[in-house]
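Note to self: keep these together.
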Amino acid sequence: MGYHSKDLQLAYAGSKVLPLDDPSYVEYNEFKAKFGEDGAVLVIGLNDKRIWQKDVFNDWSKLSNDIKAIKGIQEVLSVGRIYELKKDTTERKFVLNKVISAPATSQAEVDSLKQKIEGLKFYDGLLFNTKNGSTLMAITFDRQILNSKYRGKIVNKINDLAQTFSEKNKVELHYSGLPWVRSKLSDKIAKEFVLFLVLALATTGLVLAIFFKQFHAVFFPLLVVINGVVWALGIIALFGYQISLLLGIIPALIVIIGIPNSVLLLNKYHNEFRKTGDKMHSLEVAIQKIGPTALLANVSAAIGFGVFSFTNSAILEEFGHIASINIIATYICSIILVPIIFSFLPAPSAKHTKHLDSKKLTAFLQKIDYLVFHHRKAIYISSAVIVLIALYGVTKMHANGYVVDDLPKKDPIYKDLKFFEKNFDGVLPLEVSIDTKKKNGVMNASFIKRIDKFQEMVSAYPEISRALSLDEVLKMATQGFYNGNPSQYRLPNTMEQAFILSYAGKSAGKGSGDMLKAFLNKDKSETRVSFQMADIGSEKMNVLLKELEVRTDSIFPKEKFNVVFTGSSRIFVKGTDYLVENLKESLLLAIGLISIIIFILFRSLRMNGIALIPNIISLIFTAGIMGYVGINLKPSTILIFSVAFGLANDQTIYFLTKYRQELENPANSISKAISLALSETGVSMIYAAGILFFGFGIFAASNFEGTMWLGILVSITLLVALLSNLILVPALLLSLEQRINRKKVAKPLIQMDMDLVDEDDNNKV
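Structure:
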């Protein structure tokens, strides 16, 4: 597995949230096949009047040309590298010429260039904004490079060149566009991949040291989970997956979830050794008593992650596959390796088993025991009040995701995105394809007027930029036909149209071919209209798109035209909606599968209810916090519920399994079995919950808000689940004491080999 880990790669493309057969995703891929990648542009912007000073302008122009020279860059446009259409009356075509052919030699020349550039109306709102003085550089990546590992290297080269310009001229630059955002997010994921693994090992190691106060009990469990991490990395590589934001936290999760296996084994081993003084016998008892319990707990945890394998979302399927497989694999490694290792090590001394006599833990569990036996009514009333308060918070929850809202508001990526939203109405692609259903239908004069009306309607929204479309190219061509006169930036009239279209159809610049090609399909029956928009969130975006679709029908009747809104922005919103819709299914599936496990274990619907109630309460509590605090349901927080439910049930399984084992002794009443389960398993439950609580707490250090909230909210859920399982479960068992079929519950799930372990754990065989 270590050998295969060398093939690990970071994910460079956008997250594949939607199923491949989702209609919106199919439309998006069809659009890209016809018109090319929509998210291929990196932008560098500034708002500084000094850009029009001779030396700064020349440096900006040089920067544009230097970036264009980088292999993998298709084109660069800026006020320092800009083109205009010139009429070639001999060849009856337009020629695309550079406005700037050499560095400016005087300020007067720059002033003249500024006037000429600002007269090229095609670029106003795209490369510069005459209203506020902002300007940007648009860098288009080659499609073959865009989603490969080379993109990061190119982005770094661009960054180095831009920083040199910035430092030399004391000009603040802002960076954005999907290539930039995705590259920087990939860098953050790579750093957090290592950070969380180190933090997970350090945190769990520290907790183990506090609990056991023994080097062996810290070092070897960590060694076993490191082995599990190597397995996880190898399996990721073997499956051909790439490290995404979700897969990046898998190694840390394996450490956090895997360590409790060792804690339970060692706790039972130490407990038995103190009773018998026989090392090998104690290890045998630990394997037999903890093995099935830990297996069920790990299966429960694996289900919490594994349900994502049924979502049809590629990124969640990958996460579900890898997490569930490796949780079980790490359990197998733990149940085999930990006893083997400790069978070779010296027997624990009185100092090493002293943790079993923790006065604070003992006193805490005794108080819970008293509470359960004497104040059950108060427990039920308190639980009901908490649930009601939490349910009100649940009503305040909203499903709303942003492209970069997982980043802190102070992060440069977030701040730069807001710069472009303020000055250019955003940089996130919103594409519209319009099918006339007729060959050459796009070239019809009435259709061209419809496009103009449509793009004016869409651009009127403050969140959306002006359009880049066939109409804008024709307006540019008309201006070029009239020798660059800014007042002639308009659609050609009926008399001019055929003439100008014939020029445009034969026009070429730098070997690019037909200048209309980027906006037309092969038979000219379909065209694209491109917008840039602000990151307004999926909730607002859904409302906006519905409104646009209704208003669009009045311009392009459905019986004559087929209009599709698509692009990266639309796909992100659809992905968020898809995950929220599947949250209920994933959670119900997790509850259903775990219920089956509980039923197989106890063969009692009543015990099923007792097992599920406290953990469902913990989920409601967490959802209530999200509602009160204003944490939205989105791709990064959608995981919390299934993951937390799977892990919270571990505590229930630990307690109920020990409770059942105590019922196997005919001398123990149900009340006594509950007290015995609390006194012994309660310690292990607190140890395991402590590791999970502090383990998931490390994700609070994440640069991604979604990962941060995942850690914090799962930690809170597990803490509430621990208290519920220690207090509410015993209380329910006592209340239903007369209705519980003792013989059915006490009958073991797996018949143990009684030659190995006596029913009376106090006596050796």
